[in-house]
Specification:
Helix content is 31%, strand content 22%. It has 320 residues and is of the alpha/beta class. It has one domain (7-90, 170-311): P-loop containing nucleotide triphosphate hydrolases (Rossmann fold, 3-Layer(aba) Sandwich), CATH 3.40.50.300. It has an 8-stranded mixed sheet with strand order 6-7-8-3-9-10-12-11, with helices on both faces. It has a 4-stranded antiparallel sheet with strand order 2-1-4-5. α3 (108-118) crosses α4 (124-137). The longest helix has 18 residues, at 184-201. The radius of gyration is 20 Å and the shape is globular. The two termini are 25 Å apart. Bound molecules: adenosine-5'-triphosphate (ATP) and magnesium ion (MG). Magnesium ion is lined by residues 50-51, 176.
Length: 320
Amino acid sequence: MSGTPVLEIRNLTKAFSMPGGRDFYAVRDVSFSVPQGASLGLVGESGCGKSTIARMITKLTEATGGSILLDGDDITHIPEKEHKKRVFSKVQMVFQDPYGVFSPRMPVGTFLEEGLVFHGVMSRKEASAEAKRLLELVELPSSLLDRMPHQLSGGQQQRVVIARAISIKPRLLILDEATSALDVSVQEGVLKLLMRLQKELQLTYLFIGHDLAVVRSIADRIAVMYAGNLVEEMDSEDLTDTAVHPYTLRLLESVFSIGDKGKKHIELENFSLSDKEDNTGCPFAHRCREAGASCSKEQPGSRLLEKNHVVKCFHVHGAM
Ligand SMILES: Nc1ncnc2c1ncn2[C@@H]1O[C@H](COP(=O)(O)OP(=O)(O)OP(=O)(O)O)[C@@H](O)[C@H]1O
Ligand SMILES: [Mg+2]
């Protein structure tokens, strides 16, 4: 995969002003790119900044530093009147709660048509026929076209939301915990659907989740976030063999314990990410088994290891 990436973020930062005048960095100096047809998985525990990145890309919140490029177009600070053309028609987002996306009294068919008409993809008449095709694409019967959203199961609702998101042929689909609320078997079905659609339609995904096993199943590359920082990024297939950051290793340990203890979420010690707000040193230092004295004084920079493997840690062996 070569050429201009569909999404490139460079040193992206979001600082919120907190009472007392200090800044809280929800996202700090994060860089990554997603080439056409690829799937980047963004993983990390609750509050680490994953959704804030998605919200900056989709213009729901303004970046305070760095840049966001879509197909090479710098959309970081564009006027609001250009959002529709330069962002909304290119990036679609699917959230955890599908029901919240519907209008409660709008039938499924109309819901699908609305997206196409709003973005000027086709006329209302053409959109009506297209809605049927879209349902088939997400493996749902056309008999659902006349149903109201509350008459669908959670899995069916999410499939309809995915159908609407891909209907306008977005350059980038952001899936923010899109399968997290679904039962395991339903989740598996939606993940398989997403993989098939990606392959067939050459879609580009930013797949956000807290469950490393789920994220790994769909992503070509994995970016691990901790407390607003991207701490490690590598090819998904290399994850278990080559992960070196102490935090990634802890996540992997918690994945292996899921089967034993029936745990679904990453649970480390009782700790709030916002406890770490002084912005000095490695963000993971006070939870890290490897941490030495320098780790709480200085921020580790990005180091490029072999095979597109990037890590931010002073204790990585073999780093160049
Ligand atoms: N408007 C805001 N003002 C202040 N802090 C905020 C604001 N929005 C988000 N935050 C903080 O930024 C941090 C990152 O939040 P974010 O929603 O990006 O996390 P997340 O990784 O998506 O978590 P989850 O897995 O629970 O969805 C959190 O500590 C959150 O409290
Ligand atoms: Mg989130």
